[in-house]
Design brief:
Distance between the termini: 24 Å
Order of helices and strands: HHEHEEEEHEHEEEEEEHHHHEEEEHHE
Strand content: 25-35%
Helix content: 25-40%
Largest sheet: 10 strands, antiparallel
Number of helices: 11
């Protein structure tokens, strides 16, 4: 059974071919005639277990029909346990009834609870540098899916089981931003789709954002996973540039009194705005703006979940430790140290710099053995804090 990564997802196409020919450009359909192609990622029984297991709560499962989601009260209930209340527990009997009546079961953010899906999403993030999430959809036979709409993210639809009929229509908008959701009142559905087809188990559909689509089942049910790629755009990068403008006193000045109704101010405001934009571009460091934005992107990435171990021991002064982080960077700033770790920026006092440097030089090490002019209590507190961040681990601890 193959491990699914970006290359396997696109096979038999290469990643280079896909990015050059299809990315943000046009739909792509891959027919594989292999209904077990995604078994290493997710099986139908995994989805059925997710829906059936006791204690599942909203929004782990959502119901949709006719282009709208059911209110959670229609299929959930609350349970009082002592002084606490477990809210939003899914009523399986109601879910089964609504599913049999044509509603679609949606399992949002499934990558957070599925180890293989989470691993694939993180691998795609590392490859593309855009945010990735995974939702699953289950639709009974002879039922409509969602009404015509477009998505504001790139879509990879992976058919896990069954068959679903897709109709693809021309884009309502060229590459809509996430702030530009589909408005059905502004789109006249053409009489004929650009393409229509059945997506069978093992098949893959790529759909750029903006392409209007609708789905339905016929005599067979459908189970598919959507990998959504929420892209960072040039607008997002330019927004970081404007945020940096807060350092310029000229841009912190108030607009002149009456700016919104005094028409005689219009020409002056336009001239000032043009001048300020020139000043902004000439003053700010584009490389610094870019790096700040990249740090935000990295900090937003989904990280692998930490494994719980009941036999864990609290780190002591003589516990053998190792530096576990591979994507970290330590830098000095005006107000102290900044440890960039797993996409996060962690601020530390300058006084702990010798300890961190010694940790990186000596592996394995103990907190007692580190050559630093600070108390053992401070080393213990820092070591335990860094362990919580994933920067250090006990020598015998995996992860």
């Amino acid at each position: 059974m193959h491990e699914l990564d970006f290359n396997a997802l696109l096979s038999p196409l290469s990643a280079e071919h896909f990015l050059a020919e299809y990315w943000e450009s046009k739909p792509m359909l891959l027919k594989r005639a292999d209904n077990a192609y995604y078994d290493s990622l997710l099986k139908l029984t995994d989805l059925e277990h997710h829906v059936s297991r006791a204690g599942t709560r909203y929004p782990d499962i959502r119901l949709a029909k006719g282009g709208a989601f059911f209110p959670p009260e229609a299929y959930t209930y609350d349970v009082k346990y002592g002084d606490e209340v477990f809210r939003g527990l899914c009523d399986l009997e109601k879910l089964v009834t609504e599913y049999s009546n044509g509603a679609t079961l949606t399992l949002p953010a499934l990558h957070l609870g599925s180890t293989p899906l989470g691993r694939l999403c993180r691998q795609l993030q590392a490859e593309l540098d855009h945010a990735v999430h995974a939702n699953a959809y289950l639709t009974a036979a002879n039922a409509d899916g969602f009404t015509p709409h477009y998505d504001t993210h790139e879509v990879f639809a992976l058919q896990i089981a069954g068959v679903k009929h897709w109709r693809i229509y021309p884009p309502a908008m060229d590459l809509p931003h996430r702030s530009q959701p589909f408005c059905p009142d502004r789109y006249a559905l053409p009489s004929a789709p650009l393409m229509q087809f059945d997506l069978a188990a093992g098949d893959l559909l790529y759909l750029p954002r903006g392409y209007v689509h609708t789905t339905a089942t016929t005599e067979c049910f459908s189970a598919h996973v959507t990998l959504g790629i929420s892209v960072y755009t040039w607008i997002d990068l330019l927004s970081e540039l404007l945020q940096g403008g807060v350092e310029l006193p000229e841009l912190r000045r108030a607009l002149p009194p009456g700016f919104a109704h005094r028409q005689e101010l219009g020409c002056e405001l336009s001239q000032q705005l043009t001048g300020l934009l020139d000043r902004l571009g000439a003053t700010l460091d584009a490389a610094a703006v870019r790096e700040r934005f990249f740090e935000k992107v990295r900090s937003a990435r989904t990280r692998a979940a930490t494994e719980f171990r009941a036999d864990a021991s609290v780190i002591g002064p003589d516990t053998p430790l190792r530096v576990a982080a591979t994507d970290c960077r330590l830098s000095r700033e005006r107000d102290g140290l900044v440890l960039q770790l797993h996409g996060r920026r962690v601020r530390l006092q300058t006084a702990v710099s010798p300890i961190l440097e010694a940790m990186c030089r000596a592996t394995p090490f103990t907190l007692r053995s580190l050559p630093a002019d600070v108390s053992l209590e401070t080393r213990l507190a820092l070591g335990r804090y860094l362990h919580g961040l994933g920067f250090v681990r006990p020598l015998d601890e995996t992860g």
